[in-house]
Predict the structure.
Amino acid sequence: MTYFPVDSQAMPPSMLGRLTLNLKITCRRARLAELESEMIAACEAAALGTCPQTKPTLAREHWDRTIWNRYLAAAMRLEASYGPRMRRLRQEIGQLERLMKLPIAA
């Protein structure tokens, strides 16, 4: 992501507020996506475990009940570490999006 310096003298305060809010929303969405990807990768690693790493095994449509059960069990275990951070980011994104709707930020 490329950031351009913002000249605060050239932009009205409401524009700076909107840019700041957009940047904060974008950063939180990116972090949330990272956390989701990390959790999915960890669940898949736990699900596939010692299974041979063959293409049919890796494709989720070929997973059997045992693999799915291991995936879900890992998701339940990992929720304690990932869940609070992900919920917090979603809450912050929602708050920032509501701020964007205020006439002051528009």
About this structure: The mean pLDDT is 84. The chain has one domain: 13-101. The CA atoms of residues 7 and 104 lie 19 Å apart.
